[in-house]
């Protein structure tokens, strides 16, 4: 069995387990805005160390050499003071039928169960500075739950070789973002064009409910333990899209955590909804020149409720107003584009802008940062996606959606 998860600790009724592979879903009640399963999140304003490939680094990987079970300890606590998350990596995991592992936070509120995991794979991250790993013994008729080492198993088959820990807010540094710059630019120019006019998505709930609803279709991508991009559901089927420079193969998709509903509960606040996490699954198609990767996720049923976006098959006009839901620097969902201001700077500068190839992009001055790579750029007129954001530099730019549609319509 690949990656099953369950909540094993008693918690309030706000927590909802939504089934199968790698999902811990904390939901909110209806569309009233009443927060359910809210927690104060140390991931807000994480370290924003730039990545050379455009992904945003928010953590580091440390080496481990730990055995668990069958002659070794059956419970280990991994604590890294002030870390924003802890994520364990298994070089081996061979379990006796009926046994299972759990990885939980210090309180046991966030907990994931594994009945087996391929060697050389990550477990789902847990929020906070502590991960508790425990081997649970199954039972057989006529045997005690704490049975001895099974015959033929001469050594522990559970081995951890590394851990990823998220940077703390105190470690935050002021550096240029890790966002890619368009070809021809040198240095790392700021992609917040002027003052940052983006706001928490929840600020739009009443002022622009359509934009707020559309923002629910985006997801925070935690890639290979320490790197961030943004992705989003495209079309009604199990389809996610992000940039090719975020990842371009199924192995990386398999090790990508896809977080839906990672949003602030109150405009300008620090408490956020506990996200619904699923694993990436398979890359269906990818392209470097047009900088896209289309992929699927596991346990799609648990994220279907967040809705989806559609590609606009027409090119937007110059001056057309835009908005960009995104996870800049890995923060909870923000939307760039002024609320209620028709003269905002988040508008089309050019609909024939050079990206990796001539006229491939739409350009705009909507505010983005590292971690925004892969975000949808939507038209305020149609509420459809007109570009897939990928370059900074002011103007920033995204690959034209009409070109993407021609390449992806077979898959959608």
From TrEMBL:
Gene3D superfamilies: Trypsin-like serine proteases
SUPFAM superfamilies, per database record: Trypsin-like serine proteases
Superkingdom to which the source organism belongs: Bacteria
InterPro entries found in the cross-reference section: Peptidase_S1_PA, Peptidase_S1_PA_chymotrypsin
Alphabetical list of Pfam families matching this protein: Trypsin_2 (PF13365)
Name of the protein this chain belongs to: Trypsin-like peptidase
Record lineage: Bacteria, Bacillati, Actinomycetota, Actinomycetes, Micromonosporales
């Amino acid at each position: 069995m690949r990656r099953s998860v369950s909540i094993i600790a008693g918690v309030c009724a706000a927590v909802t387990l939504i089934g199968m592979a790698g999902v811990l879903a904390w939901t909110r009640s209806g569309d009233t805005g009443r927060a359910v399963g809210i927690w104060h999140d140390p991931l807000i304003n994480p370290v924003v160390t730039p990545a050379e490939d455009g992904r945003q680094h928010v953590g580091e990987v440390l080496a481990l050499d730990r055995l668990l079970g069958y002659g070794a300890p059956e419970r280990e606590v991994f604590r890294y003071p002030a870390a924003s998350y802890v994520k364990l990596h298994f070089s081996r995991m061979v379990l006796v039928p009926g046994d299972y592992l759990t990885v939980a936070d210090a309180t046991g509120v966030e907990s994931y169960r594994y009945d087996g995991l391929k060697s050389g794979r990550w477990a789902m991250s847990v929020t906070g500075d502590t991960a508790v790993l425990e081997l649970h013994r199954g039972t057989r008729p006529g045997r005690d739950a704490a049975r001895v080492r099974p015959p033929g198993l001469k050594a522990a088959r559970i081995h951890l070789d590394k851990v990823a820990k998220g940077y703390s807010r105190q470690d935050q540094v002021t550096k240029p973002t890790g966002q890619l710059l368009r070809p021809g630019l040198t240095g790392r120019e700021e992609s917040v064009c002027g003052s940052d006019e983006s706001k928490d998505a929840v600020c739009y709930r009443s002022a622009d409910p359509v934009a707020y609803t559309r923002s629910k279709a985006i997801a925070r991508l935690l890639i290979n333990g320490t790197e961030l991009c943004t992705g989003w559901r495209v079309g009604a089927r199990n389809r996610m899209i992000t940039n090719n420079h975020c990842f371009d193969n199924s192995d990386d998709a398999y090790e990508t955590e896809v977080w839906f509903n990672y949003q602030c509960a109150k405009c300008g606040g620090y408490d956020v909804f506990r996200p619904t996490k699923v694993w990436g699954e398979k890359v269906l198609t990818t392209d470097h020149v047009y900088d896209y990767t289309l992929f699927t996720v596991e346990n799609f049923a648990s994220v279907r409720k967040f809705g989806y976006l559609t590609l606009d098959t027409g090119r937007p006009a110059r001056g057309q107003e835009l908005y960009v839901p995104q996870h800049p620097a890995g923060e909870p969902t923000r939307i760039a584009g002024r609320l209620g201001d028709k003269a905002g700077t988040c508008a089309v500068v050019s609909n024939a802008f050079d990206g990796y190839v001539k006229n491939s992009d739409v350009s705009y001055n909507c505010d983005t940062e590292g971690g925004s790579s892969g975000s949808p750029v939507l038209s305020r007129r149609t509420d459809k996606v007109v570009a897939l954001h990928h370059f900074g530099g002011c103007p920033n730019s995204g690959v034209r959606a009409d070109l993407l549609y021609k390449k992806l319509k077979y898959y959608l």
